Amino acid sequence: METFEIKTVTQKESKDDLRLKKIKLYIDFAEAVQKKTGESLADTLYKFTPLQWEFQRYSPDPDLAVWNEFVTGIGKKPLLDWVLEFSKRRDDPKLAKNSDKKGKENTPKRCFMYDVFGEDVDIHFDNNDKSGFGPLSKERMKERRAELKELFTIIKFKHPKAKEVHGRSWLYNLESYKRLFPESYAKSVKPYKGKFANGNGLWGQLSDREGNLKQDLVTELFENLEKVDANDIPSAFKYQRMTASAPIEDFYKEYGVE
């Protein structure tokens, strides 16, 4: 199998260039999985790349209407061209405005976000730190905890019936991430056994804090893919997705939310 190669990123490289590289990576990985499992390319793109969520703008799409629209165009033109065209179509500001109403709670541009499902809260992390330090570094630990206090203050006000907090991400492999949370939550971390690998809960580990792809981890991903069982594609990633949970009262107490 050919190794996916990424040229050295320069400071002048645009976000569009980085986005193009990631899409090429998704396609190469989906095609490699297709050869290994015998599934259709549409299925491997759906199950094992983040494209589905990116097309949905990380908002619910229970009927898969957006994805099915994308699938109808597969094979009609070069796949890379079609993904770029469909992505641009989904970047319509009107769609973004509508997705905000259905997706993650609107919050200031911080690193932590959340969703609420009944009495359960799911927390998510995205690197929006522009300080120049690593978002999980000791230098930014105070800021991250301040964000979490703000986040849980909002949750307590907007969702007073929430009882449990959950998280699923490769980041729970890192002590620098776990130390931000209540002890009960950090100690609950365990492997999450899912069959799919289609979200940033796994794919996020392949990008550095500037959004550049990490060549070493990308190379390792494709090398591992040759070795893993066809029924366990997610195990090709270096850091596995982990899950954690704890009562929300532990978070209120940890961050002094009254």
Which stretches are poorly predicted, pLDDT < 50 over at least 5 residues?
A: 1-12, 96-103
DSSP summary: helix tally: 12
Strand content: 5-15%
Shape: globular
| Major beta sheet summary | 5 strands, mixed
Structural class: alpha+beta
Rg calc:
19 Å
**What gap, in angstroms, lies between the N and C termini?**
56 Å
Order of helices and strands: HHHHHHEEHEHHEHHEH
Fraction in helix: 40-55%
Within the largest sheet, what's the order of strands?
A: 1-2-3-5-4
Mean pLDDT: 87
Could you tell me the number of beta strands? 5
Molecular structure report:
The protein is 45% helix and 10% strand. It contains 12 helices and 5 strands. The protein has a 5-stranded mixed sheet. A hairpin with a 2-residue loop joins strand 1 and strand 2.
